[in-house]
Each structure stands twice: as C-alpha cells, then as structure tokens.
Specification:
- The chain is mainly alpha-helical and 364 residues long.
- The protein folds into three domains: 50 residues, no CATH class; 87 residues, DNA polymerase, domain 1 (Orthogonal Bundle); 158 residues, Orthogonal Bundle (hpI Integrase, Chain A).
- It contains 15 helices and six strands.
- It has a three-stranded antiparallel sheet. Strands 4-5-6 form a three-stranded antiparallel sheet.
- α7 packs across α11.
- The radius of gyration is 34 Å and the shape is elongated.
- The relative contact order is 0.07.
Length: 364
Amino acid sequence: MNCVKCFKPIPDGSVFCMFCGTPQAPKPRSKKKRGNGQGTVFQLKNGKYIARCVLGYYTDDDGKKHVKRVSKVFAKKSDAIASLSSLKQTVERQKDITLHDLYDRYTNSKEYDGLSYSQRDKLGFAWNRWKELEFRGINTLTVADIETQIEKKTKSFYPAHDMKVLLSHLYKQAIKMEIAHVNKTENVDIPFDAPKAKRETWTQKEIDLLWSDYTDHPFTAYILIMCYAGLRFGELSAIKLADIHLEESYMIGGIKTEAGIDREIPIHDRIKPLIESIISNRKQKLLEMNEDNFYTAYWETIDRAGLRRLPPHTCRHYFFSRMTAEGIQGGVIAEVGGHASYLTTLKNYVRISLADKLKAVNQI
C-alpha cells in the first residue's frame, strides 16, 4: 500500500507512515447535526455567529428567482444553535405571507409605479378597508371572509369593486412568490349591483359657455378640442406635434383598439385656430401636462364656466351625439371615432335628446 500523504510504499496494515508519520486510517465523518430545512449556523468575520433559516423563494418583476431568509446574530455559537428552533417556527408562520407584506410588495412594484395618481388613491382607500385583516395570512382567507369584509366596509358598488381589485393584486403577488396557488377573488361576488351608466352629455348651450370661457382661459381649448375631435384624455395627451397636419386638417392618434390606434382624426374648422395657438408654444406634444394637473384644471374650468360636473369622457359622448343628430352615416361616425362598428358607438356613446327624437318622429 502507499502512504495517503507522501505516496511512498509502506507495509500493508500500517497505522502510520514510516516516512512522514501520517495516520493512514481515514477520519470518521462527523454525524450531521441538523437535517435539511432545520437551518444553519456559521461564524462571521467579526467573530459573532449567525443563525439562518430559508423562508422561501420568490420571483421578482424581472423574472429572477431569489431566496428569502430569516436570520439572527448572536455573540455565542451555542445561543445561535439554540435559536434555530424559534427561527424555524418563524419560517412556518411566514410561509403564509400576510396581506400587509403583500401590500408592501405590490406598492413597490413596477406595475404600481405605472398607475396614475388617481388609481393609486383608489387602491389606497381600498387598503384602508382591508387593514383590519392586514396581518392575516393570505392563505387563511376564505371566500366568505372576503365577501364579509367587503359587505362590512362598503355600501355601494365602486368601493366594493376597488376592494376586490386590490385583493386580486395581492393574490397575484402571492402566486408569483409561490405562496398561494389560487386567486380567490375570482369566486367573490360583490354584494351590490353595478350602477347603470347615466346617458348624459352636454347641451349646445353648455358648449357655448366653454367658448365664452376660452376667451380668458387658454386651457379651455383642450376641452373644446376633445369635444370637436371626439378624443379621450389618453388620446389627447399622446398626440405629438409631428402628427398634427394643420394644412390638411387632420391629426394622427388614437388608443385602445386596432380600429382606434393611429387613425386619421379630422380637425374641425372651429378648433383649428385653437390647435395652431397651442402648438406655437409647445416643444413635443399637443398636451404637455400630467393627468392629475389636467383633471385639476378640467374641474376648475367646468365649475367656472357653469357646466354640469360631467367627466372628461363626456367630450367624446358629445362628439358622437352631435354627429348622429346631424345625420352623418354610421360607418363614417365609427371610422372617425375609432370604433370597429357603429353599434359600439350607438350603444356606449350616442345620447339622443328628446328634441331630436321628436323631430325624427314628426318627419313621418
């Protein structure tokens, strides 16, 4: 046989090497003190000891997997080893992550950063209604628990809907972390019926009030442009100066559907001077204002001019309603407004006044 260290030949059965003195019997392997998942203890550079248990695994917004651990530092190794059992209990408790932790994770996500301030406010109000249960584990909630809390904290459809939407976001976070496997909000029934949309739009007299207000308040031009071009706020805010062709009287813009994106938007003769005045002081876009500032200025204008407090989307309703009242062909109206079908326009946007209905029946 050969020495295990110097490899020189030595007699079979030698306990030590006669040349270098190295013991020839292998060292017995120490028995493993802790099984898998029981945690580890190791020494830090400063001489202290850290006890650590794996809490679980999660995937971040970029798709990368990470290990989540719980750790505690001790001066003595014996104390670190003794703490492993309590750390393990912490792991078992936190395997079902709380609503509080999930809300914190969601509000620091890229998805949340992309929301408007108004959307964040709505979710913030919804969270206040969930706070009674913020330290409940997500997997301990039942559908009955969720419906009971919604019914307890709300009295109408939209606040209840916001609570359900927020909790759905939290479930998606837990599923991404592989802590939950089912989004229970999919089986939750809101205890209130959704209110029917009020089919309201502005009268011509109210539009005239906007024209009068525009004389001293340049911002009012944006509301008039939306009314005469049938634009949503998102479409107005996305139009670039390079997409405005005043000489040919059209703009390129649009959002949402295939029929609506990058469509030709005709520029009404009455708003052409308004657009020309605006773009003379702009660098890149027709509207260089964020959504919150726009809404603030919008409501100030509506109140000052004396119009009913109807939301910005009313501008689009007015546009379609007037086009229909003037007898424009349905296909043309749908094309101009970015709808694939005039039925969509008629169902969701056209508001026919009683006067127009009377005028129509009296033609028989």
